[in-house]
Design a protein that fits this description.
By secondary structure, this protein is mostly beta strands. Helix content is 8%, strand content 48%. Strand 4 and strand 5 form a beta hairpin. The radius of gyration is 13 Å and the shape is globular.
């Protein structure tokens, strides 16, 4: 059974940093792309980043590029999202998801948002101004 467990959310002031972690189990890590999504109240879910252990590819949406960095650890089966220079508009519930892709790019994250069947429970990130 595929399981994804997020951790690391919390309350932080604007300009601060947080590190989210997604612990994965129940699947072969390098057969899947793991992505991070977020959903703010009243807004659509947004795919912000993904990582492929198969080819080492990574993607960051323009809204987070230069501030967020995704990384994966095959030995620990975790995918981390390092978030820096946080802004109030980053406030959302952050979810990780996994799907059977071998490469990560904008098309992958868009497809994951539609077809992925594996999601974590989410972790709240709140950025105060």
């Amino acid at each position: 059974e595929v399981q994804l467990v997020e951790s690391g959310g919390g309350l932080v002031q604007a300009g601060g940093s947080l590190r989210l972690s997604c612990a994965a189990s129940g699947f072969t890590f390098n057969d899947y792309v793991v992505g991070w999504f977020r959903q703010a109240p009243g807004k659509e879910r947004e795919g912000i980043s993904c990582f492929s252990d198969t080819d080492g590819s990574a993607y960051h949406a323009d809204s987070v590029k230069g501030r967020f960095t995704i990384s994966g650890d095959n030995t620990k089966k975790t995918v981390a999202l390092q978030m820096s220079n946080l802004k109030p508009e980053d406030t959302a519930v952050y979810y990780c998801s996994a799907a059977e892709f071998s490469h990560c790019d904008i098309k992958t994250i868009q497809a994951m948002g539609i077809v992925s069947q594996h999601w974590g429970q989410g972790t709240q990130v709140t950025v105060s101004s």
